[in-house]
Amino acid sequence: MNLVNHQFRLAARPVGLPKRNDWNYVEEPVRDPGPGEVLIKVLYLSLDPAMRGWMNAGRSYIAPVEIGAVMRAGGAGRVIASANPAFTVGDHVTGVVGVQEYALMDAQSAKGLVKVDPKLLPLPVYVSALGLTGLTAYFGLLEVGQAKAGDTVVVSGAAGATGMVVGQIAKIKGCRAVGIAGGTEKCNYVVNDLGFDACIDYKSQNVAEELRKHCPKGVNVYFDNVGGEILDTVLAQLARGARVVICGAISQYNSTTGFRGPSNYMSLLVNSARMEGFVVFNYAARYPEAARELAGWMMAGKLKSKEDIVEGFQTFPETLLKLFRGENFGKLMIKVAEA
Ligand code: NAP
Q1: Is 170 in the pocket of ligand 1 (CB under 6 A)?
Q2: How far apart are CA 197 and CA 154, in angstroms?
Q3: Atom 35 of ligand 1 has which residue's CA nearest to it?
């Protein structure tokens, strides 16, 4: 085939923020697919806060990436060779492709690929609002959070990939949507462009005071993407019967002093509320149903997707850090190659 693959392999388990030398940049030839295999040219890589957790040893909802292995990552690409009857050269797919330019998937891994049509919507949208990000927002808010019309929904990381979909679904379902995000530009965007009712800039405003103002009857659903101090602050303002959805805790992922847990948890007792974590993979059997509904909202102009696309495969180690510095605005991706 005469193609050369470049990969980022995990060299060391990071302490704190991942550093350049926690990665090995590797070059190797691409081999032709054997029986059942399919070869994908990776066009877009999805950069996710969860990648930081996958770099740690220890038990989690998914096995850690082994030292020396290609870093796990979602993405989108085009089939360029196939010995698998389910895929034809030219098909566009999304799936777990890894941080590399070419992904050779065996028959088992190829089962996780989803065919998508870039003529209907741009390819990055299938990784963003119509991909795992959108599905996370959908199941977290509607299944775990049980959001219903009239509820006040608060979401942190509101201008991030997941948060912005959460707020928009909340509005579609007739809820009041209040975001929490870092900076005026992000807050203005979710209110003016996405239709949130309000947004609190946690970097310059007093979150507790602003919550009291924007959620006078308390918070019915809190969709937590960040954990730490913001989780504690929202816990103090729950309404009776509230649901706190633990989607993520990005403020804690690079901590070198341990996770900060909530101290206001007695608010759950006082308000007969519950707090529940989830992983989007729990809902895999229902992805097609949810993706259809998300696509319908998008076609109807009720759901917007925003991607933050960085060019260049080699930028991976630095681009990943944007997530933890709040430098991404929308779903962070790397464009690896032209479609
Ligand atoms: P994202 O929100 O697009 O990007 C991360 C954002 O987090 C940053 O832009 C930044 O926004 C915010 N942030 C970073 N450090 C922070 C801090 N110390 N305090 C407060 N906010 C901080 O990323 P995403 O992919 O949508 O992921 C959002 C969350 O969902 C993450 O916690 C992720 O782990 C979780 N997640 C969970 C599942 C699941 O199945 N449970 C699936 C996907 C994602 P600001 O500029 O606003 O600070």
Answers
A1: no
A2: 10
A3: 248
The two three-digit tokens of residue 315, written as one number? 């930028």
- Asked if 142 and 153 count as a contact pair (C-beta separation under 8 A), the reply is no
Alpha-carbon span 329 to 47, nearest angstrom: 12
SS3 state of residue 258: coil
pLDDT tens digits, residue range 203-244?
999 999 999 999 999 999 999 999 999 999 999 999 999 999
Residue nearest to atom 9 of ligand 1 (CA): 326
Note the pTM of the prediction, 2 decimals: 0.97
**β 274-277/307-311 pair status:** unpaired
CB 324 less than 6 A from any atom of ligand 1: yes
**Cα–Cα distance measured from residue 163 to residue 245, given in angstroms and rounded to the nearest whole number:** 12
pLDDT band at 339 (very low <50, low <70, confident <90, very high): confident
Q: Are 156 and 230 in contact (CB under 8 A)?
A: yes
pLDDT exceeds cutoff 80 at 1: no
Task: Check if 164 has its Cβ closer than 6 Å to any atom of ligand 1.
Answer: no
Query: How many whole angstroms separate alpha carbon 37 and alpha carbon 22?
Result: 30
Provide the 10 A C-beta neighbour count for residue 37.
19
Tell me the best of 186, 207, 225, 233 to mutate to test the pocket of ligand 1, counting ligand atoms within 8 Å of each CB and taking the most: 225
